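Retro notes, structure queue

What went well: the backlog is down to a handful. What didn't: a couple of records were mislabeled last round, so from now on we paste the full input next to the output in the thread. Example, using D-malate dehydrogenase [decarboxylating] from Rhizobium aquaticum:
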Amino acid sequence: MKTYSIALIPGDGIGRDVVDAAWEVLEAAAETAGFALDGTEFPWSCAFYKETGRMMPEDGIETLRGFDAIFLGAVGWPKEVPDAVSLHGLLLPIRKAFVQYANIRPHRLLPGVEGPLKAENFDILCIRENTEGEYSGAGGRVHQGMDNEVAVETSIFTRKGVERIIRFGFEQAKARRGKLASVTKSNAQKYSMVFWDETTQRLATEYPEVEVTSYHVDALAARMVMAPESLDVIVASNLFGDILTDLGAAIQGGLGFAASANINPDRSAPSMFEPVHGSAPDIAGKGIANPMATVWSGAMMLEHLGETQAARRIMKALAITTGKGIGTAPGKDTTAKITGAVKNALTTL
Ligand code: NAD
Ligand code: IPM
Ligand code: MN
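Corresponding output:
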């Protein structure tokens, strides 16, 4: 039987609940489809940091390299470990080391989910640059704590990095409805963002079938609320993509629905699948985290592994579940009830 090796990193807070829930669904889908998922769990988290002084062991990246994919819950427990330490110690190095430069985040309403907008028929795919830009980690602080303190955070945009993500956006748009929104703030940021706009225009000549529009990120944020149906594929830098995809999550009914795939398009290293949301300390331990974002991310993982039928069945099971009114609003149903309903829906397909 075909077996895929999956590294499981539940992480912190509700990461544990949603990974367990999604894994149950993934295993059920694999069994019916006739393949197996061999999960190996890693306890890397803020609790691990408190025990060992590291978010993952020194050879953590090398350990992960041999897996077919990585499935992650959430990282961060700011009450005990500063976010800049936990995220730069685990999640962000994985994205960078495995050149997962395309972070794919779909935003659409599952049936029966009431979003905050009047619009219902939007279907947006946000492509977020995932390895450089504002997240480069370059910078420093001088005169800390003094009146003349200065903090510098440098965004690094390379030709290679910008070209490949915009090209990825064009390819996605070509395969969908043929519309690409390229996002910058080139009216204020005159180096990196002008470079991004120029790259978009240059690549546009290779994709005459794609209608490309350059938006400023502020205007695009407003458009996502006022006219989400007018958007198809969005391509944005690391930070802008981060912010726009929490907005995307909001218009699709909440963070419990927003899935994400950190893809290494060249397949030179494993890709990583995780929900858009974090560890949700405010609801951790209450058993009410919505696992749908993580289940959806799991479907994206199966799709990436080539198990398209199983991925489609999971998406249908999610739609059946929300169609019955289960899990449609934050806190409405328990994680266990939603997971049971999705598994049950799978058996009816
Ligand atoms: P968050 O996404 O954890 O939570 C924001 C809000 O959304 C909270 O009210 C939370 O209860 C709600 N929410 C999130 N996921 C939900 C779900 N599945 N079901 C129902 N409600 C849900 O954002 P935050 O509070 O800013 O961050 C908490 C911690 O997580 C921080 O340490 C942050 O750095 C980290 N974080 C990690 C990731 C990641 O690992 N990819 C992503 C975002 C935030
Ligand atoms: C996300 C998260 C992370 C990011 C944080 C936790 C570093 O918000 O995956 O959207 O900004 O990439
Ligand atoms: Mn985010």
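Agreed that this is the format going forward. Reviewer comment attached to the example: The CA atoms of residues 132 and 156 lie 6 Å apart.
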